Amino acid sequence: MNKYSYEQAYKVALKLLPKGFTLIDRGRNNWVFEQGDRILTIPKHERVKDYVVRVKATEFLHSHEIPVSEILNYSSENKGVPEYLLVKKVEGEHVDLSKSTLSEKESVHKSAGEVLSAIHNLPCSGYGRLQPNLMGEDDSWVDFTDKFFEESINRVKKSPGLYSRFGRDLEKAYQEGRISLTHFSLPYFLHADFHLGNLLFKNGQISAVLDLDIVSSGDPNWDSGHYCHTFNIARERGVRSFRLGYNKPYDKVRERLYCLMIWTRKIGSQAIQRPEALKETIPELEKILRGEI
Q1: CA atoms of 233 and 105, how far apart (whole Å)
Q2: Distances (CA, A) of 232 to 33, 96, 173, 215, 238
Q3: 3-state SS class at 24
Q4: If exposure means fewest CB atoms within 10 Å of the residue's CB, which of 43, 114, 163, 212 is most exposed?
């Protein structure tokens, strides 16, 4: 069910982009319009939260010289007028590793590591998802991970076949790894969905970090493990390049645990919203369960 209809979004676009615009077929959750060097985004699906965290996180990262889109105008919902976000279009594109040379792949992954390292250098307080004041909403990291895993496994339980196939193994893995999370007390600023699909590149270097809606405060292994398991082309070499750029300590055990948690959320959500995507997600989950990370 739509939060705002196309007609509502179209009226906003007419006002903000009077010289004409193109509707960009990008994503299922937002209406996206383009005019020259401007991109207008309006919530589409009802599950989309307001953009205020995205705006605050973008401004914060920009102030620390992390490459992000420049915000031109933002307005929350007002008297029935939809919320909208207008940004300057970034020069860059999503990378296609299947069409990249070896040196291009290495440059892409190294740049991703360097930028993630810079993000993890930023000050952060609290734990879990950041609120508009950029403070984590949970009292401890394990409070967040408990809540995240419970919500995720409950989604899997809505698909009895999936739960029968993976549920017990996932629950066991979380409970066995949970003890190591109870002692975590040094939060880092996290993108929380850091992968190639949320990055734009120009000449092998990141030109923009996208999708800042679920930025969080917590263990950096959440981001590094997720990145290392969300591309499948020359992964071993790519991970080496990423680690070279990242140049920080990491914990492969916790990376694996976080990947299992994230993939629990993925299969639970996809089974409901996009069951066709499971043909790619399930084989990846099986690799993580086997320890291939």
Answers
A1: 9
A2: 31, 12, 24, 25, 9
A3: strand
A4: 114
Q: Convert the pLDDT of each residue in 35-92 to its tens digit.
A: 999 999 999 987 778 999 999 999 999 999 999 999 999 999 988 899 999 999 999 9
Phi, psi (5° rounding) for residue 156? -65, -35
Q: Are 228 and 246 in contact (CB under 8 A)?
A: no
CA distance 32 to 43: 9
Residue 231 is which amino acid? F
Among 12, 2, 7, 10, which residue's Cα sits nearest to residue 79? Answer: 12
Show the CA angle centred on residue 204, arms to residues 195 and 96, nearest 5°: 55
Tell me how far apart the alpha carbons of residues 249 and 87 are, in angstroms, rounded to a whole number.
Answer: 35
In the beta sheet, which residues pair with residue 73?
A: 86
What's the pLDDT at 26? Answer: 64
Q: Quote the pLDDT of residue 225.
A: 97
3-state helix vs strand vs coil in the chain, percent to 5? 50, 20, 30
- Cα 47-160-257 angle, rounded to 5 deg: 70
Alpha carbons 56 and 36: distance in angstroms, whole number: 25
CA distance 14 to 17: 5
